[in-house]
Design brief:
CATH superfamily of the largest domain: Aminohydrolase, N-terminal nucleophile (Ntn) domain
CATH topology of the largest domain: Glutamine Phosphoribosylpyrophosphate, subunit 1, domain 1
Helix content: 25-40%
CATH architecture of the largest domain: 4-Layer Sandwich
CATH class of the largest domain: Alpha Beta
Distance between the termini: 17 Å
Number of domains: 2
Number of strands: 27
Largest sheet: 8 strands, antiparallel
Strand content: 15-25%
Number of helices: 17
């Protein structure tokens, strides 16, 4: 893995006659947030059984693979409300089908289904307390803890039970929760992960609501973005409308106690989210372009020799495309003349391969994903723009490929700072020892290891200035993976490879 991975995408919709299909298309739009597994749960009243039930279908693979039978939507995933989940897993839990979300539990008051994006920072102590009560777990995921806390709550009613559970957990959690008659959307008080509220028009012309990790899931369905779910907010969506709630039942915009301020994940802008999505109240494309422009100052295009052709700037597709556009625009504006071109073509139809680990296999896997455009690269000074470098193994192979295509010089520019620390709030990073920024003693040494003529990064200040220009506030963002400044304490012994 040479990119940070976000663990999942969430989608939910209430009171729609085609809820499961809407969840299917919503998850399809969110496929970039998780490609290991997918699942959908619906809610309905079973006339034969005389009670509410929650049909579900989950499996490993892409959304298109898991839901490849039309009969699933005709006879299994029936009901007018649904939630869905796409997931990235890590090595410790990738092969366990019990970890595929959404999770469903039946308790004395009905049914609950939950899909989670993030990591609970106090999962170890909660799990130990639940085990001491005799709780049996179906999965190794911290997401299941929330359901158990709700099911075992002494409060009455599903809403109060859920609120009680949420007051006991800490860390990163954007949630969509389905009860027998309501859809609940939650963001943790820090607001680490995005979650947006959308509005849909039903076939009869009336409106209903849904939630999703990114607004691109609304676009594919013709929905309308309403607003973000606010950090610490609990939204109760039922057939009567939308209500914000907190533990005591009193109205308050911030429903879960806020201990550490707001710290939304800046890596969502750097890499995770689609550029056509709006997250944290701003278009990703806009922020990413600003990061590229800031990089033109922090990590400029190398000066060219008199009479030499303009350097060619090329993005490592696709997540770097927008930053590269901003970089070239600003570079030309400040007098560092360069030309944007396409030097790498990405194969979008490559999934997991059968090849075994090993250096030769890794090199081959990079070549299955990317190919060079030799006519663009030959005899030219090339500036490669990427959004981030984690381990650096892919970047190293790409530099070699560009050189082999005949490039005169290869300079690498990164539209974010060096990644120096793991994330405990819902991103899958390697251990600190595996991060290339920690393996080499200087940026020049990293450049030498990559095989590049030079390497330069966007500074932390440059990154945060780009965010500030879009939002007028840089203080509401977590950049711990770049700075080691963790906004929420993390329990020692929390196992990242078992969480979602």
């Amino acid at each position: 893995m040479d990119k940070a991975r976000d663990h999942c995408g969430l989608f939910g919709v209430l009171d729609h006659p085609d809820a499961a299909r809407m969840a299917y298309f919503g998850l399809h739009a969110l496929q970039h947030r998780g490609q290991e597994s997918a699942g959908i749960v619906t809610a309905m009243f079973d006339e034969e059984k005389g009670r509410h039930v929650m049909p579900q279908h989950k499996g490993f693979g892409l959304v298109l693979d898991v839901f490849n039978d039309e009969q699933l939507f005709e006879s299994t995933l029936v009901g007018d409300s649904a939630i869905g989940h796409t997931r990235y897993s890590t090595s410790g839990s990738a092969t366990n089908p019990a970890n595929i979300q959404p999770f469903v539990v039946h308790y004395q008051e009905g049914n609950l289904a939950l899909a989670h994006n993030g990591n609970l920072s106090n999962s170890r102590s909660i799990r130990e307390a639940l085990v001491a009560r005799g709780t049996l777990f179906n999965s190794s995921s911290d997401s299941e803890l929330i359901l158990h806390l709700a099911a075992q709550s002494k409060d009455n009613g599903p809403i109060r039970r859920i609120i009680d559970a949420l007051h006991q957990v800490e860390g990163a959690f954007s949630l969509v929760i389905l009860t027998d008659d309501a859809l609940i959307a939650v963001r943790d008080p820090n607001g680490f992960k995005p979650l947006a509220l959308g509005r849909f028009v039903k076939p009869d012309g009336t409106a209903t609501y849904g939630v999703a990790s990114e607004t691109c899931a609304f676009d594919i369905l013709g929905g309308e973005y309403v607003r973000d779910v606010e950090p610490g907010e609990i939204l109760i969506i039922d057939k009567e409308g939308i209500e914000r709630m907190e533990s005591g039942g009193a109205f308050d915009g911030v429903c879960i106690p806020r201990k550490n301020g707001v710290s939304q994940c800046v890596f969502e802008y750097v890499y995770f989210s689609r550029p056509d999505s709006m997250i944290f109240g701003e278009m990703v494309d806009k922020v990413r372009r600003k990061m590229g422009k800031k990089m033109a100052h922090d990590a400029p295009v190398p000066k060219r020799v008199k009479g030499e052709k303009r350097p060619i700037v090329m993005a490592v597709p696709d997540s770097s495309n927008t930053a590269a556009i901003g970089y070239v625009s600003e570079s030309n504006k400040i007098g560092r003349k360069c030309k944007l071109d396409i030097g790498l073509i990405r194969n979008h139809y490559v999934g997991r391969t059968f090849i075994s680990p090993g250096q030769e296999s890794r090199e081959f896997k990079v070549k299955t994903k990317f190919n060079t455009v030799s006519g663009v690269l030959k005899d030219r000074v090339i500036v490669m723009v990427d959004d981030s470098i984690v381990r650096g193994t892919t970047a190293r192979q790409l530099v070699k490929m560009v050189r082999d295509a005949g490039a005169k010089e290869v300079h690498f520019r990164v539209a974010s700072p060096p990644v120096v620390s793991p994330c405990f709030y819902g991103m899958d990073f390697p251990s600190p020892q595996e991060l290339v920024a920690n393996q080499q003693e200087s940026i020049d040494k990293i450049a030498e290891w990559l095989g590049a003529d030079s390497l330069a990064y966007l500074s932390v200040d440059g990154m945060m200035e780009a965010v500030e220009e879009a939002h007028d506030d840089r203080s509401n963002y977590c950049n711990a993976c770049f700075t080691k400044n963790y906004p929420v304490p993390v329990e020692m012994g929390v196992e990242k490879d078992e969480n979602d």
